[in-house]
Amino acid sequence: MMSSDFSIPTETLIITVSASFQLGNYQIEVLEYLGYFTPNVHSFKVNFKSLSEEDQEHNETDASPLLGLLRVGEADSGLKRELDIRESLKSYGLIAPLITHTHLDSVLIDTTTKSPENDL
Asked: Which of UniProt's keywords are assigned here (predicted)?
């Protein structure tokens, strides 16, 4: 039996299809891995729901999650360039709003998806 020196830090966020986690003031549920369209940036289709009391009171009648795009990449990847562009353009109307962004020290991305035929 081989011993592995690989261990996942306890504060690691693991992102995979069907994962659910909190990011900022939002609850995120990963629906689908979309791909690796931009260098060093993974894209996921997600449902998200605000956890802030103000948003929950405002949207009390419609508590269903919203569909969104989660993009995960390194701090110096295309995401950094996008944040810089968004900052310079401020609230330019042709760019979809960014609801949140954060920096995490440890993220593990699992792009494997379980296909229904494997469940038999």
From this structure: Hydrolase
